[in-house]
From TrEMBL:
It comes from the Bacteria. Pfam families: Arf. One of its GO terms (molecular function) is GTPase activity. InterPro entries: Gliding_Motility_GTPase, P-loop_NTPase, Small_GTPase_ARF/SAR. Keywords: GTP-binding, Nucleotide-binding. The lineage of its organism: Bacteria, Bacillati, Chloroflexota, Ktedonobacteria, Ktedonobacterales. This is Gliding-motility protein MglA. SUPFAM superfamilies: P-loop containing nucleoside triphosphate hydrolases (SSF52540). PANTHER family: ATP/GTP-BINDING PROTEIN-RELATED, GLIDING MOTILITY PROTEIN MGLA. It comes from Dictyobacter kobayashii.
Length: 191
């Protein structure tokens, strides 16, 4: 749920990058952080877990302008992807205004991706949200891998909602900003 700060004329929106462990969630945020001018973003903060980390940083997107005279700030989060951290994923998801579901396109990760999107649906119900009407963007990451599944297969089995989707190679930045722009616009449309 977006937070509106009347005193500073800002709207704060939370976008959560969700997906299995090592699918590229953190890589997406690191690329955005490196690419945005330091005056337009905050520091990247990390909440350490034993084997993975959840990252947070915010920035002021210059291209989205204002909404009724209010500047918009997006706080970007990742969830830890490993099964062990389901409660942490639920906590990070709480209060989200939009979700980027990052898919590891490799064939051997397909079943994990299917389980992860099913868990996302369940977690959304737990916090009283319907994923069918919630701002969601799918990112088909690791498209450069030789064993990447064809996009039509990913669309058929993982994108039943027909959410906007983007091919990406987050490691070199391909598709990262297209994904971020799409979810930002989707969130702004909801406002």
């Amino acid at each position: 749920m977006a937070l509106i700060n009347i005193a500073t004329h800002e709207i704060h929106c939370k976008i959560v990058y969700y997906g299995i462990g090592y699918c590229g969630k953190t890589t997406n945020l690191q690329h955005v952080h490196r690419s945005i001018h330091p005056n337009a973003r905050g520091d990247m903060l990390s909440i350490a877990t034993e084997t993975e980390r959840t990252l947070f940083f915010d920035f002021l997107p210059l291209d989205l302008g204002t909404v009724h005279g209010f500047r918009t700030r997006f706080h970007l989060y990742t969830v830890p992807g490993q099964i062990l951290y389901e409660r942490t994923r639920l906590a990070v998801l709480n209060g989200a205004d939009g979700i980027v579901f990052v898919v590891d396109s490799q064939a051997e990760k397909f079943e994990e991706n299917v389980q992860s999107i099913a868990e996302l649906e369940m977690n959304m119900r737990r916090i009283g949200k319907d994923l069918m009407t919630f701002p969601l963007v799918m990112q088909w990451n690791k498209r450069d891998m030789p064993n990447a599944l064809p996009v039509p297969v990913l669309e058929r089995y993982l994108n039943r909602r027909r959410a906007p989707s983007f091919e990406a190679v987050a490691a070199d930045g391909r598709g990262v900003f297209a994904t971020l722009r799409a979810i930002s616009k989707n969130v702004m449309a909801q406002l």
